[in-house]
Amino acid sequence: MEENKELETVTESQRNAGKGLFLSGIIVGFAATLLVVGGIFIAFQIHRIVTVKDDVSAQVSYDEDSAVNAQTIKKLQLLEDTVKENFYLSEVTNEQLEDGMYRGLMEALDDPYSEYYTAEELNELTEQTQGIYYGIGAYVSMDSDTNLPKISGVIEGAPAADVDLRANDIIYEVDGVSTAGKTLTESVSMIRGEAGTTVDLTIVRQGAGDYLHVTVERAKVESPTVKYEMLDDNMAYIQIVEFDDVTIDQFTDALATVKGSDMKGLILDLRGNPGGSLDAVVQIARKLLPEGMIVYTEDKAGKRTEYTCDGKTPLEVPLVVLVDMNSASASEILAGAIQDYGIGTLVGTTTFGKGIVQQIMPFTDGSAIKITISAYYTPNGRNIHGTGIEPDVECEFDGDAYYNSDTPVDNQLEKAKEVLKDLMK
Questions:
Q1: Do 266 and 162 belong together in one domain?
Q2: Choosing from 19, 354, 370, 417, which is the catalytic residue?
Q3: CATH code at 200?
Q4: Which of 222, 250, 283 is the last residue of a domain?
Q5: What is the distance between the alpha carbons of residues 93 and 392, in angstroms, rounded to a whole number?
């Protein structure tokens, strides 16, 4: 079973399911832009191709032809009375019932990407689209042996690294409160907080003779969404874990660095990338593509919105793009455009296949809904929803060679190198 992990607040995104090249665990923030995230493949992923709309609250009148009318209001009141009078397991609050009604309306759409957010949940989503959050900069997961939260990694330069928190440290207490019996989300919410405040952690570390007591000052943390390095033969490797607001600058810096290192060919790794900000992927595409269409969307009325590239900074070296079944939404926009223009070779397995767009519509009480409003299409007019993008070179990931070997080998990356080397001749 996939281990559910969190980067203090929401989700650890070891989204490279089937490979372990770059732990990212992105916590992101909210912007008035389209977001593209897909993939229902890890326990707690946020799926989005979303835009923010002005508050949609308005005067409401009961139309007898609508789902919400005098009769349904009467039935809801009857249901509320029945539940409060008879439900045995726990006390039920009005807030619980209200949120449940709103969620139920969205669930009736039978669309996993359309959902209701409470004000608190919307605030969490807000953090998730910027790649910036406030906390200690540690990836946290549940330890299967103790059922307690543990550190699964720390972000370089973050507060957790400054106080020498390490992978596999068990978090026994947070501010003197035991984490036993707490869910991962509950433990994470105890750890996070405003920048400048502190949190006291009681740590159990293998090999240590006693509990370790660590005080960590929370800070603004930028999630690392891009990794890069130079490989042999002047081949450059750039991995994008997710398309967040911070990804634009991180990718720009990475591309400039490898270009300055005499790059002769580029491997762009989008494996396990569930998507993110449409603005981010469009900005990144503009650094790679020739002049023309990047992606366009169409809504139920046939209204079309186009995102284009001026072609002023096209990539001028051979390109290979690594993709897999967890490359979704924004990843598919970039991979699809590269494939349509024929400027790169896709290596790996068929992508996830999320080709629809959601929009966030907030209300004055701080809550919001996210609802599917359109579909998106690649430059050649392909809608890949439900089908995904087939790679030009099929290559299944060899998990045994990577995970069960003294010298792990990423066979997909090796195949990408082989293909790129041929293109560079």
A1: no
A2: 354
A3: 2.30.42.10
A4: 222
A5: 54
Q: Are residues 331 and 189 in the same domain?
A: no
Catalytic residue among 152, 329, 331, 374: 329
| Separation between Cα atoms, residue 144 and residue 25, nearest integer Å | 19
Q: Quick check: is 340 catalytic?
A: yes
Q: Which of 169, 269, 324, 340 is catalytic?
A: 340
Is 418 in the same domain as 286? yes
- Could you tell me if 312 and 379 lie in one domain? yes
pLDDT tens for the 425 residues of the chain, in order = 223 333 343 333 333 333 333 222 222 222 223 445 543 322 223 333 444 455 555 555 566 678 888 888 899 899 889 999 898 788 889 999 999 999 999 999 999 999 999 998 888 777 766 677 789 999 898 998 999 999 988 888 999 999 999 999 999 999 999 999 998 878 988 998 999 999 999 999 999 989 999 999 999 988 899 999 999 999 999 999 999 889 999 999 999 999 999 999 999 999 999 998 889 999 999 999 999 999 999 999 999 999 999 999 999 999 999 999 999 999 999 999 999 999 999 999 999 999 998 888 999 999 999 999 999 999 999 999 999 999 999 999 999 999 888 999 999 999 999 999 999 99
C-beta of residue 204 within 8 angstroms of C-beta of residue 122: no
Calculate the alpha carbon distances from 39 to 16, 46, 111, 126, 334 in Å. Answer: 12, 8, 13, 19, 16
pTM exceeds cut of 0.90: no
User: How many domains is the chain partitioned into structurally?
Assistant: 2
Is residue 329 part of the annotated active site? The answer reads yes
Known active-site residue 392: no
Range of the domain at 188: 5-52+126-222
Residue that finishes a domain, picked among 175, 203, 222 = 222
What does the DSSP 8-state code read for residue 2?
A: P
Q: Tell whether 149 and 211 lie within a shared domain.
A: yes
Per the domain annotation, does 116 fall within a domain? no
Q: Residue 252 class from Cβ within 10 Å (0-12 exposed, 13-18 middle, 19+ buried)?
A: middle
